[in-house]
Design goal:
The chain has 237 residues and is mostly beta strands. The protein contains 3 helices and 18 strands. It folds into 3 domains: 1-25 and 113-131; 31-107, OB fold (Dihydrolipoamide Acetyltransferase, E2P); 132-237, Glucose Oxidase, domain 1. It is elongated and about 80 Å long.
C-alpha cells in the first residue's frame, strides 16, 4: 500500500527513494515564512485600480530575491519594485493597490518525519511511502497535516505515563486535565470525536462519523497520518 505525503514547495526534501524512515529521520528543511504587504500603487505613483498593468509577477508565482515585482516605464526613466526576499505571490488587491507575498527568510529549520515506512518514490513536493496496510477515515475538521504513533486514551490513574513524543492521543473526548498533562508529556497531536476542552497550539482533528472511533480502536493500527487535501486520517501499519 502507498501513502502520499505532501510537503511545501518552499522546502527541501531530505529523504531519498529506498530509505526506511521513522520519527527520528529528518524529513524536510525550510526557512521561516512571513506575510509581507507591498504598496505597489504608492511606490510607483499609480492609481490602485491600474496595478495589473505594471505587475511582472502574478498570484501563485514564485519569486526569487532580486527579481522585479512591478515596473513603471517613463520618458525620463523606469521605476521598479524589486523583491527583498524569495517567496510566493499570494494576493493582489486592485482596491488598495497592494501585493501580498509569503516571504521565506531567516534560518533554515529541519523537520523530522511524522510517519514511518519505506520511501518508494519522490515526486514534485510529494513522498510516496510504502506500508503494509492502510485504512482511511473522514474528518470533520483538521487543518494541518500531522501524524505519529497511535495512543488510545483511557481515563484512569495509569493513563498518560511517560513520554508521549511522536504520539497522537486518540479518544472520544479528552478531559481538560488529561489534555494539559498530555501536552506537558510532549504529545504530537490529538484526534477526537468532540472538540478539545482547552485551546491548543498542537495539531488537532475531529472525526466526522461517530461509529468510526469504535472501528479505529478495533483496528488498533500502530500509526496514523492526516490527509488535509482529502479531509481524511489514515491509520496504517
Amino acid at each position: 500500500m502507498i501513502l502520499e505525503i505532501r510537503f511545501p514547495k518552499s522546502s527541501k526534501c531530505l529523504v531519498h527513494e529506498g530509505d526506511k524512515v521513522d520519527f527520528n529521520t529528518p524529513f524536510i528543511e525550510g526557512k521561516s515564512e512571513s506575510q509581507i504587504k507591498i504598496n505597489v500603487s504608492q511606490k510607483l505613483g499609480i492609481e490602485p485600480d491600474t496595478i495589473f498593468r505594471y505587475l511582472k509577477k502574478l498570484v501563485g508565482e514564485e519569486v526569487e530575491k532580486g527579481q522585479t515585482l512591478a515596473l513603471k516605464k517613463g520618458f525620463l526613466g523606469n521605476t521598479k519594485i524589486v523583491s527583498e526576499f524569495s517567496g510566493i505571490i499570494r494576493e493582489v488587491d486592485h482596491n488598495s493597490g497592494e501585493m501580498v507575498m509569503t516571504a521565506y527568510k531567516g534560518q533554515s529549520n529541519s523537520i523530522n518525519c511524522y510517519f514511518k515506512g519505506k520511501v518508494k518514490k519522490i515526486e514534485e513536493h510529494e513522498v510516496r511511502l510504502e506500508v503494509e496496510k492502510t485504512e482511511p477515515f473522514s474528518l470533520k475538521s483538521g487543518h494541518l497535516e500531522f501524524g505519529g504513533e497511535s495512543y488510545f486514551f483511557k481515563e484512569d490513574e495509569n493513563s498518560l505515563i511517560g513520554s508521549l513524543d511522536n504520539k497522537i492521543l486518540i479518544g472520544n473526548s479528552i478531559p481538560s486535565f488529561y489534555q494539559i498533562k498530555a501536552e506537558a508529556l510532549g504529545v504530537s497531536g490529538f484526534l477526537t470525536l468532540e472538540k478539545l476542552k482547552e485551546a491548543t497550539d498542537l495539531p488537532f482533528a475531529q472525526l466526522k462519523n461517530i461509529a468510526d472511533m469504535e472501528k479505529i480502536i478495533k483496528l488498533n493500527f500502530p500509526y496514523c497520518i492526516t490527509d488535509k487535501v482529502n479531509s481524511k486520517i489514515i491509520f496504517y501499519k
